[in-house]
Amino acid sequence: MLSVIYVSVADPLVRDADIAAILTSARRNNARDELTGALIYNGFNFMQALEGPDEKVEACLAIIRADARHSGMVELRRRTIETRTFAEWSMLYDPSFQGHDHDLSRLAANGHLDQQDERLMGNFLALGRRRPAA
Ligand SMILES: Cc1cc2nc3c(=O)[nH]c(=O)nc-3n(C[C@H](O)[C@H](O)[C@H](O)COP(=O)(O)O)c2cc1C
Q1: Which of 34, 41, 17, 22 is nearest to 90 (CA)?
Q2: Overall CATH class of domain 2-127
Q3: Sequence ranges of the domains in the chain
Q4: CA 117 from centroid of its chain's CA atoms
Q5: CB-CB neighbours of 133 under 10 Å
Q6: Which residues share a beta bridge with 10?
Q7: pLDDT in tens, 86-119
Q8: Closest Cα to atom 16 of ligand 1
Q9: What pTM was estimated for this model as a whole?
């Protein structure tokens, strides 16, 4: 399986309703395609993890890349994985992923991970330990 984490720049016109629409599509399509992952949004930038069968991840990334609700997608991490981090989530969304708004913007501007981004990445991946509400 493939796991990809990217950051991007949200279109300035993105509103809560757009986020809800993205999640509705993502959860439906990802469940169909055996994809799992997580999304965070700080009002300016997105960070998303997508994991699953290689060709499904690639196909989904191509669709996401063409989505006008964001731009400037930069892959931060691409790995072959045996075990999913977000196994129970077709698309986890954390509207209150706090404390990292500035970090996420800096990371999206830099386009690569450096030392100070490790904490953000660690906390992002730790979201996968959450359990969906029953
Ligand atoms: C930041 C971001 C993340 C997205 N993540 C996904 C995703 O994980 N899976 C997905 O199918 N679509 C995702 N989308 C939406 C797609 O770009 C596209 O709108 C959608 O797949 C269209 O599917 P539909 O016609 O079935 O609604 C995302 C869009 C954005 C802007």
Answers
A1: 34
A2: alpha beta
A3: 2-127
A4: 15
A5: 4
A6: 70
A7: 999 999 998 777 667 788 888 888 888 888 788 8
A8: 64
A9: 0.95
Q: Helix (H) and strand (E) counts for the chain?
A: 4, 5
11: Cβ below 6 Å to ligand 1? no
Best probe residue, ligand 1, of 7, 13, 29 (max atoms within 8 Å of C-beta): 29
87 CA → ligand 1 middle, Å = 19
Number of Cβ within a 10 Å radius of residue 11: 13
- Report pLDDT digits (tens) over 66-92: 999 999 999 999 999 999 999 999 999
User: Ligand 1 pocket check: which of 13, 25, 41, 42 to mutate, most ligand atoms within 8 Å of Cβ?
Assistant: 25
What is the Cα 45 distance to its own chain's centre?
Answer: 10
